[in-house]
Design goal:
mainly alpha, flat
């Protein structure tokens, strides 16, 4: 059976340059987008910290309550592995393998 070979269309130098410019423009756009998002997150964190400081001035009890985690906000139940004691006398199989260790002699 002969493998299929597909002839790729020839790309002109002008098309290659246009693609490179498009990639650069896309990269700049994504960089600006990322920067705006990071600035927005930072401003939100700063506003939150400022609000917490103002709350602390008003009432320490309210401040401590605001810092507590709301368990109902993200209901999450995790169940990990439980300990399983070994079965007495059980011999785990090695499985099938092929010895391929190289031996070097001098």
């Amino acid at each position: 059976m002969v493998p299929r070979v597909r002839d790729l269309p020839k790309v002109t130098e002008e098309e290659t340059e246009q693609r490179a410019l498009l990639m650069k423009e896309w990269s700049r756009y994504k960089q600006k987008e990322h920067k705006k998002e990071a600035e927005m997150i930072n401003s939100m964190i700063e506003a939150q910290q400022e609000a917490l400081q103002e709350l602390r001035v008003e009432s320490e009890d309210l401040y401590q309550a605001a810092l507590k985690r709301d368990q109902g906000l993200f209901p999450l139940e995790l169940q990990g592995c439980s300990y399983t004691p070994p079965i007495p006398g059980y011999q785990a199989p090695d499985g099938k393998y092929r010895e391929n260790t190289k031996v070097y002699t001098q």
